[in-house]
Amino acid sequence: MVGVPERLTDAWTLGPHTVPNRVLLAPLAGIGNWFVRLQARRHGAGMAVSEMVSSFAVHHRNERTVTELLRIHPDERGDAAPGGRAPISIQLFGHDPGVMRSAAETVAQAGADVIDLNMGCPVPKVCRTGAGAALLDDPDRAVALARAAAQGSGLPVTVKLRSGRRAGGTEGFDLARRLVADAGVAAIAFHPRSASVHHKGVPDYDLAARLVAQLGAPVILTGGLRSPEAVAAAYERTGATAVMLARGSLGDPWLFERVLGRRDHGPSEEEVLAELDWVIGRAIEHLGEPRAARWMRKAYPWYVARLGLPRPEARDVNDALQRSESTAAARSLVRRAAAPATVA
User: Fold this and answer.
1) pLDDT at position 235 over 50
2) How many angstroms separate the CA atoms of 195 and 339, rounded?
3) What is the tens place of the pLDDT at every residue in 30-77?
4) CA distances from 85 to 75, 113, 200 (A)
5) 187 pairs with which residues across the strands?
6) What does the pLDDT read at residue 344?
7) Quick one: which of 158, 273, 336, 338 has the most CB atoms within 10 Å?
8) φ, ψ at 222 (rounded to 5°)
9) What is the 3-state secondary structure (H, E, C) of 169-220?
10) What is the pLDDT of residue 343?
11) If you average pLDDT over every residue of the chain, what do you get?
12) DSSP SS3 for 215
């Protein structure tokens, strides 16, 4: 244990902003659009970070990127979510400081409060460009990118890092210290697994604790935090400022409530169905019906998993949902599948 941590329900400071609690939604590639962020806030997240957005796409004004990926919904700015107003963070990735400066300026104009930089993505097509986890091997470029993002946006900059490129590596630990000391980064989101293992293996929480002790800036812990018990143990062990929930919250936004002590049980079938209806409605608002129907195919299994269906039946339902042509058909299918469990 490193000192006595603050409570997860306590507010904390990120640059000039007050974050109402210490449980955040991590950036989720291809997923974390405005309604996914808003969902997390509805269930208590103190802050939510967007999916990663290409700095080159922003710089070159790619229409879909600018109109969809940078979209900040008015409801994200309201006080309806528990805890009230929270900073809005948009994550960028890239390898060119000049392009990053330009993109960060555009993101600030779009209404972001914080710029987050991805320096941990292990996906080969990202790393081959010199972005993501490849920056762990290029600390000078990483520092230049962080400086450029701050100069272009005038906003606090945070960076999400892996511990290293390969098992046992600590390049991310070393880079975190340089980013704070040389680029003035406001906080580090630290995933103490190497890029090579992706989401497998046990996170090195002892390394995270060492970073907390040495960094002199907030450390946001992520990786392996799939239950309230896991969060509590890792938070106490590391002394981190905050924690980030990632894939464990997909289809289970109630995890935020459980971690924050606002409920002690999972969702009922009706809660799951109501939440799925909310997500479908927001997907239609964002994308229109045909594209929403396609986008939802990635999300349906998250919610089916919460319905307590026998495994063969859940598999059949998911297969049918992948073939559904409309959100109305999908809604009906899920309701019929859940009806026996709901009645029981």
Assistant:
1) yes
2) 42
3) 999 999 999 999 999 999 999 999 999 999 999 999 999 999 999 998
4) 10, 11, 35
5) 158
6) 42
7) 158
8) -140, 160
9) CCHHHHHHHHHHHHHCCCEEEEEEEEHHHCCCCCCCHHHHHHHHHHHCCCEE
10) 43
11) 93
12) helix
Spatial separation of the C-alpha atoms in residues 133 and 62, rounded to whole Å: 24
Q: Residue type at 68?
A: E
Q: What is the pLDDT of residue 168?
A: 78
* Orientation angle between helical segments 139-153 and 171-183, nearest 10 degrees: 40
Would you say the C-alpha torsion 81, 248, 225, 122 has a positive or negative sign? negative
User: Which pLDDT value is given to residue 85?
Assistant: 75
Whole-number CA gyration radius for the chain: 20
Asked whether 72 and 88 are in contact (CB, 8 A), the reply is yes
Average pLDDT over residues 225-243: 96
53 φ, ψ to 5°? -120, 135
Taking alpha carbons only, the member of 41, 5, 35 closest to residue 23 is 41
Token reading at 96: 């060119």
**Spatial distance between the Cα atoms of 153 and 285, rounded to a whole number of angstroms:** 29
Residue count of the chain, please give it: 344
Calpha distance 45→233 (Å, rounded): 19
Q: Lowest-pLDDT range, 55-64, 163-172, 206-215, 293-302?
A: 163-172
Token pair 């300026």 is found at 105
